[in-house]
Amino acid sequence: MSDRIEKFGLQIDKTLFDFIETQALPETGVSSDDFWKGLSDLAHEMGPKNKALLDKREALQQKIDEWHIRNRNAPHDHEAYKSFLEEIGYLLPEGGAFEIDTANVDPEIASVPGPQLVVPITNARYALNAANARWGSLYDGFYGTDAMGTPAPKGGYAKGRGARVVARSRVFLDGAFPINGGSHADAQRYYVHQGVLLVDDNPLESPEKFVGYKGHPKAPDSILLKNNGLHVELVFDRTHPIGSRDQCGLADVQIESAISAIMDCEDSVACVDAEDKVQAYSNWLGLMKGDLVDTFEKNGETVTRQLNADRVYTSPDGSGEVVLKGRALMLVRNVGHLMTNPAILTKDGGEIYEGLMDAMVTALIAKHDLGRESGNSVTGSVYVVKPKMHGPEEVAFANDIFTHVEKVLGLPQYTVKLGIMDEERRTSVNLKECIRAAKSRVAFINTGFLDRTGDEIHTSMEAGPFSRKDFIKRKAWIGAYEDRNVDIGLECGLSGKAQIGKGMWAMPDKMAAMLEAKIDHPKSGANCAWVPSPTAATLHALHYHTVDVFAVQERLRKGGRRAHVDTVLDIPTASYRKWSKDQITREVENNAQGILGYVVRWVDQGVGCSKVPDINNVGLMEDRATCRISAQHIANWLHHDVVSEAEVMEIMQRMAEVVDGQNAGDALYTPMAPGFDGIAFQAACDLVFKGRVQPSGYTEPVLHQRRLELKAG
């Protein structure tokens, strides 16, 4: 065990202590003693409350299990079930109307709809990519993906494809910025005259969409346009390989893309001890101070990456400057209430609740940004996304945590804004009261199908076997859950004050499919949605030019739609259970392959988020949420004898061989076959065979234990 430093009853790993003392605390105005005493008070006063909330989760779960067991042989009585949930305090009465009063919210959260990235904070390169994904090349997005219907070509530049990219981009420009009596496809010249943009002497149909330029007004180097709050920059350069062949010298179309980015300390990382936490906190510190730099090898060359500078343009009338951020607004996702971490021990020798440590340290680090020129928040706010909260009491607890943190750090109350992730069943059915519990902090709510379904399976484990995963998506409850999240968010006044978000597109190589499907998110009234890469953010941004999200929200608000909690409470158990042997095998194989492909990298390499080929070799973004649903699904089928332990183990071993083959080119990879006795394989088996007894079906306890076991060895 590493050396520990004692402070106010805390036993702090020296690695973490030194980081806080020498890097995080200086220049914050917070003294060492104030910080450590504040953290000790938080751990020792809030820790017992944290445990009591976790105990309540388990007590409610036990009652729900017992109810399903008592009623297993009778047809499901929805009204009796709902009354039972009310009786035990799971489904709470809904209070009167209110609106959030969150103040000092940045425009990226309040008034600019657009794509959102989620990225593991432990990887500096990825974190910088995400922060810099505020802007992206539409030409690159079309050329380098299958967005236009065919895969990107291999080898040198394909002129025919390049011409298609240029034509497709001009179709977008005609849609978002139509020209009076003309088309961008025919444009020979763009210039500025008396503050007005003219395209071959024709103005835009909406002249106010022209907001700036660079260079000389008669022959600009670039033109800045704005539509639905998002900016587009037309870049002209006749010396550029693309611009030199273009009729008006248009070399690129730059799209404002990832408006915000969540720097993740939770589901996409593998942080199990002080060493890991310091890596996460160090990168967050670099982002908040603006000096994070990463150097790496790419295509045989050494590349150094740092945060992009702001973009400066001349105002249309030439009298002043227009300054736009070069980086996404950054939020930080703390861990939930469940996990503890050995980085700090409390007076009784137990591990600190990791969420309490995250709250104090990430907020301390964010002080470096407040008031900084060209910083993250222009309104003096800190944005913390808090996942995996179950119901209003747990949201109120998070609110109290940050009130304590603000007092210790000398921050005005409600400096810390809270993101409530609507991904646990008890939060979904009590969402209005969850928002009320933090109505002066809420800056973000979202839905997440994967964690939400994993919790649905675990909560209703005793109700019977669940449908196959693809069929779960078709059940009525998921649509009601998605709609209700937006409806309640609008009822509670989030429009224009906070983000209402939607979940991840999990296939980073399937951009044509994303362009077809993901427009449904802004059409649903969501003003942000998650994408798996900067390129995906650029392409998804096109949807927010097509859809005026605030107009959609106003229609929904006036229409008074309210998806009903009764539908959300419909349990997606299988009504048809006469699956063939092949159907059962295929479902378990797909789940097992995803679990193994993710867990082997998590445990062996400490990689918390990765693109894992599925059983059909389609690359899927996997994190603990995807792992949770897959593990809970197999655990449910095991529990109800849809499949036997022996059959599952045979499939796990066979899929381990498939995963070994898919990772054959990774020099750091340790094969699971033929011994099947490695820690990673054992961890995957634990998630499945012990899945029914994991708290809320979470994967963290098993993964952390096995990763610590490997690191100790």
TrEMBL record:
GO cellular component annotations of the record: cytosol
Pfam families: MS_C (PF20659), MS_N (PF20656), MS_TIM-barrel (PF01274), MSG_insertion (PF20658)
Domain Malate synthase TIM barrel: 330-563
Residue ranges of domain Malate synthase C-terminal in the record: 584-686
Residues the record lists as Cysteine sulfenic acid (-SOH) modifications: C609
Compartments in which it is found: Cytoplasm
Binding site for acetyl-CoA: V118, R125, Y126, S268, R305, P532
Keywords: Cytoplasm, Glyoxylate bypass, Magnesium, Metal-binding, Oxidation, Transferase, Tricarboxylic acid cycle
SUPFAM superfamilies recorded: Malate synthase G
Cofactor entry: Mg(2+)
The UniProt record lists the keyword Metal-binding: yes
GO biological process: glyoxylate catabolic process; glyoxylate cycle; tricarboxylic acid cycle
Annotated ranges, domain Malate synthase G alpha-beta insertion: 157-227
GO molecular function: magnesium ion binding; malate synthase activity
Main localisation: cytoplasm
Pathway per the UniProt entry: Carbohydrate metabolism; glyoxylate cycle; (S)-malate from isocitrate: step 2/2
Catalyzed chemical reaction(s): glyoxylate + acetyl-CoA + H2O = (S)-malate + CoA + H(+)
Domain Malate synthase N-terminal as annotated: residue spans: 18-71
List of residues binding glyoxylate: R333, E423, G448, F449, L450, D451
EC numbers on record: 2.3.3.9
Binding of Mg(2+), residues: E423, D451
Function: Involved in the glycolate utilization. Catalyzes the condensation and subsequent hydrolysis of acetyl-coenzyme A (acetyl-CoA) and glyoxylate to form malate and CoA.
Family to which the UniProt record says this protein belongs: Belongs to the malate synthase family. GlcB subfamily.
Subunit structure: Monomer.
PANTHER family xref list: MALATE SYNTHASE G (PTHR42739:SF1)
Protein name (Swiss-Prot/TrEMBL): Malate synthase G
The organism of origin for this protein: Thalassococcus halodurans
Gene name tied to this protein: glcB
